[in-house]
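Bumping with the actual sequence this time:
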Amino acid sequence: LRDDPRLAELSIMGNNSLQDMTVIAVSILSGEVAAMKGDIDAATEFLEQAVAIEDGLIYSEPRDWPQPARHSLGAVLLQAGKPAEAERVYNADLGVHRENGWSLYGLSKSLEQQGKAAAAAAARMRFEKAWPVWMQSR
């Protein structure tokens, strides 16, 4: 389906192509599968591709692609023992999705893994404040 050229001509409300959506979906799925197989390099590559395409989407409200690819990328990096890289990913996501509970939680975990106790506690407090608000909006 991802390779069907007709998808490039179809869009969501005239904004983003269905082909972009399918490439994001396939990239995230491929990244998750690669991570489960222990191939962190491939997982990271697939997930970074999804992030790049997601970042290029035309903004819409609600977003055409609702699940940020950075959530998966950050989680894979944490599992791979790369908390500094995960911290950068979660901070980048917070630049796009302000006070997003998923990213705040991942940020707190990445800071904990790096031994940055005070920063981890501050991120955890932000998460605890943001999470109920975010959940109510769903």
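The tokens above came from a reply further down the thread. Residues 117-136 form the longest helix (20 residues).
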